[in-house]
Amino acid sequence: MNARAQRRMFNEVKKNPRVSAKDLQTFLEHANISVDKSTICKTLNKNGVQGRTPRKKPLVSKNNIAAHLKYAKEHLNVPVVLWTDETKVELFRGNTQHCGEKRAQLATVSLTEK
After folding, report:
1. E strand or H helix that includes residue 21
2. Which part of the chain is the Transposase Tc1-like domain (predicted)?
3. Which pLDDT score is estimated for 85?
4. Considering the domain boundaries, does residue 62 fall inside one?
5. How confident is the model at residue 53 (pLDDT cuts 50, 70, 90)?
6. Where in the sequence is the domain holding 36, given as residue range(s)?
C-alpha cells in the first residue's frame, strides 16, 4: 500500500471513525487500489488507530422507564423470601482437582461440581 492510499484511508477513518475494514477495502477498490482487509488492519494498528468495540447504547427509552416504574410499583409490597439450596459453590478452585495441560492464551472455563 503506497503513501497516497494510506492518506486516503486515514482521511476516511477521520471522517467516520466507526468504518469497518471491509468498508475501507471497498472504498479503496473504487479508487482502483486492491488491498486485503488484514493489510488495512495492520496499517491502521501500526499508525495508532486500533479497532475498538463501541459502547452499547443503553436501552432506556420513555417506554422502558414507564414499564420499570410500573413493575416497581406493582411489586412494592411483595414479601421477601429467603431461598436456600444445598449446592456447594467453590470460589477460587477450592478442594477439587483439575486435570489437563495448561495451554498458553486459551480461555478455559472450569465447571463446578454439584
Report:
1. helix 21-30
2. 6-77
3. 72
4. no
5. confident
6. 3-46
The yes-or-no verdict on residue 3 having pLDDT over 80 is yes
Kindly report the length of the chain.
114
Cell 467453590 found at: 90
Judge contact between 47 and 10, C-beta under 8 A.
Answer: yes
Contact 114, 88 (CB under 8 A): yes
**For the chain, what is the domain count?**
1
What is the C-alpha separation between 56 and 65, in angstroms, rounded?
A: 18
In sequence order, what DSSP letters do the residues of the chain get, joined into one string? --HHHHHHHHHHHHH-TT--HHHHHHHHHHTT----HHHHHHHHHHTT----PPPPPP---HHHHHHHHHHHHHTTTPPP----------SSS-S----S---TT----PPPP-
First to last CA, the chain: 57
When the pLDDT of each residue in the chain is averaged and rounded to a whole number, the result is: 80
- pLDDT (tens digit per residue) in 4-29: 999 999 999 899 888 888 999 999 99
